[in-house]
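Thread: DNA helicase RecQ, structure

OP (GT): Posting the sequence first so everyone is looking at the same thing. Length is 602 residues per the record. Can we get the structure tokens written out before standup tomorrow? I want them in the notebook alongside the other entries.
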Amino acid sequence: MQDTPHEILRGVFGYDAFRGQQADVVEHVVAGHDALVLMPTGGGKSLCYQIPALARYGTGIVVSPLIALMQDQVEALEQVGVAAAYLNSSLEAGRAAEVEARLLAGELDLLYVAPERLLTGRFLALLDRIAIALFAIDEAHCVSQWGHDFRPEYRSLNILHERWPEVPRIALTATADPPTQREIAERLDLVEARHFVSSFDRPNIRYRVVQKASARRQLLGFLEDHRGEAGIVYCLSRRKVEETAQLLREQGYHALAYHAGLDSGVRAANQRRFLQDEGVVVVATIAFGMGIDKPDVRFVAHMDLPKSLEGYYQETGRAGRDGQPAQAWLCYGLSDVVLLKQMIESGDAGEDRKRVERGKLDALLGYCESTGCRRQTLLAAFGETYPQPCGNCDNCLDPPETWDATVAAQKALSCVYRSGQRFGATHLIDVLRGADTERIRQFGHDRLSTYGIGEDLDANQWRSVFRQLVAAGCLSVDAEGHGALHLTEAARPVLRGETTLSLRRDIVRTRDRSRAARVDSGPRLDPADTAVFERLRALRGRLAKEQNVPAYVIFHDATLRAIAFSRPARLSELAGIDGVGSSKLQRYGQAVLDALVEPDPS
């Protein structure tokens, strides 16, 4: 007789109770039904298919898009005594054959496989020869052709239902707005499946958006309060990744670069160091991150504007998976908008795809320029209503000032019109402020009626006006005209004085000392407990290095804090702490108890 889900939760994974909707999902899938699960990053999605795979007869087949994600999950499962393996291109032929032999012999509880391999005739025939407990489709948003992580192979995974209609399927994602949710259900034949949708809120993450002035200096100011902490800094280009990583190393940070232009061995080594070492900062393009399961990432910083709110949510969601306070910091300016619009228009996608991408960028601009609660705006993009201001974002903690910018907007829009709608913000600001430049003289713009009428605002203030006029839809960026600004229909009532315009007043800070509010995810440690916690961390680090695995797959910080606080004296007491299952108790229990004993001062 198979163990019950709760017995597996306690005995294998070391937890007394399910969280949120986990219990309902597990019960539903164990009973043989299909499910579509939407949970935020860190919400415990993996247990929703791992426990049913252990509770049902046969092997659970997990479709996963990334090699690093598979390896990470398998290492964590092996630590708790679960027979798990993966099949992907990183394995040599002999090793892959060993895994297949274990699969055919019924020795595997869970097998992770890339969609490309799963869909081969050879592998499908292999699956015909085994008992399948379930199919889990992880990162299910990869099926969406409009999404930022589109994987064409995911669209063929409906074959699983056609070929094995009696095997339950569970699709899981942390990133899907309502249209993407519908697309997942349709493409994977999960329209009849029960949908489990949890709140997308990550209450421990503090969101902050700053206007780009001196981005490198602003980044260093933000990071000053995060020395020694693990984090991710996202940049749009490979060159900027390399330059930023070098800057951080010069400032004493343990910073590594990650982008698609690096040798695959270097990329793998840098990702491994990020996962295994303490306090590593990875500077990366969006090539880095999906499936990163490191729980103690304390910050995610964006040096450039992401491409969509979905992408931003997923990237920031890599912070604070342990439930402890974390920060999401975004630095952006009008140049980011120009560059992203150029990337959209110059891409090979069809007009339908470009229209969707423009809409996603506009929604992100609305988030950046919002004067209301960031969390309310962000969650609304996922179809969720957040009932009241969150109190944990920059706009809630430091409400922005607004000002009547109607006259300034009229001056800016008139300048765009009178200069022929052929120039970008930098030149237009020079005209408005009456600058004496060769370019102004070349085009005769010193003779325009708008020349010098904006001397009352400095260049930074005018940059803010133009940026917000683009975000408000009064100006559009000509992606093929080197960022030239054009008037839109929305500009007409502003120019005519038929409407007023209120804009936010930017305050440029090069130092941001706003620490994230503490989220109660465990006991508070006094100095003596903290010393014990550090001894436990040192033990965990040694064990991790011996096995060449990330420290968190042995014990999470939350488990170590609970041990340091309760000071168990016997193995039976240690077994009652969350995160200490039977396998870990057997492997590490005595070493943990020994570490709790105060060292002899002599």
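GT: Both are above now. Quick notes for whoever picks this up: The CA atoms of residues 540 and 590 lie 13 Å apart. The radius of gyration is 27 Å.
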